[in-house]
Design a protein that fits this description.
Rossmann fold; 7-stranded parallel β-sheet; 14% strand
């Protein structure tokens, strides 16, 4: 027979991971990892603000099936122009913002010797510049409203390694780990946790070209101790943890969700 203390303890442990009543902004929410994170947050009780250039109809259906309130914002994050609108629309709809997942990103493959300035700037703008200024706008909203906030930046295995034929992507994702640490140092005292997730090799749109190259695909799988590509579902646990009260004393750190890739 369970005593009152034991029962209360179990309930409180479950509550630590609840996102009930929280509002989460997720960029790049129409497919892949962003969609998976939206669905996870919806199942944990959050309101979802899905930001993407294209329709989020599929994500919306999945989140509403999980019982979540859903707001779609069409925005091109190749520039900082839509940032204030994203924050203001989220607050107008749900009252405040609590969670920001900087997931939107692009990758352009070319030999380093042939990379153009235009291609370099386009990757850095989406993957690095907009991440900072959207985080800044989110932090201002949390501070002005006097509520806590959780920022989760999506990094990469190329935050740790050099990669091949993706110098701008590697530079931007390496910067994400540094930015995560820097923002933690300034905003932790203001009740804002800034952490990151570094996905391993995931079966998403960004990796289609690699997975279709049999030799590259085989070489990658050989190095992953778990022996398979990751999925958006594999990222959901870490995303919920970093968005919830369970991670309140985790700050400035990037968690690798990589099937053991970095251990090799």
């Amino acid at each position: 027979m369970k005593g009152a203390y034991e029962f209360s303890y179990e309930d409180n442990m479950m509550d630590m991971f609840s996102l009930k009543g929280k509002t989460a902004i997720v960029t790049g929410a129409n497919t892949g990892l962003g969609q998976g994170i939206c669905v996870a947050y919806a199942k944990m009780g959050a309101n979802i603000v899905a930001v993407a250039r294209r329709s989020c109809d599929e994500t919306k259906a999945l989140c509403e099936d999980a019982g979540a309130k859903f707001l779609e914002i069409r925005a091109d994050l190749s520039s900082t122009e839509p940032i204030n609108m994203i924050i203001s629309e989220a607050i107008k709809t749900f009252g405040q913002v609590d969670i920001l997942v900087n997931n939107a990103g692009i990758i352009k493959r070319n030999d380093a010797i042939d990379v153009t300035e235009e291609d370099w700037d386009s990757v850095i703008d989406v993957n690095q510049k907009v991440v900072f200024f959207l985080s800044q706008a989110f932090a201002k909203a949390c501070i002005n409203n006097k509520n806590k906030g959780k920022i989760i930046n999506i990094a990469s295995m190329l935050s740790y390694q050099g990669g091949i034929r993706v110098p701008a992507y590697c530079a931007s994702k390496s910067a994400i780990i540094g930015l995560t640490r820097a923002l933690c140092n300034e905003w932790a005292s203001k009740g804002i946790n800034v952490n990151g997730i570094a996905p391993g090799y995931m079966a998403t749109n960004n990796t289609t070209q690699i997975r279709e190259d049999q030799s590259r695909n085989d070489a990658i799988l050989e190095r992953i101790p778990q022996g398979r590509w990751g999925t958006p579902e594999d990222l959901q646990g870490a995303a919920v943890f970093l968005a919830s009260n369970a991670s309140d004393y985790v700050n400035g750190f990037t968690i690798a969700v990589d099937g053991g890739w970095l251990a090799r």
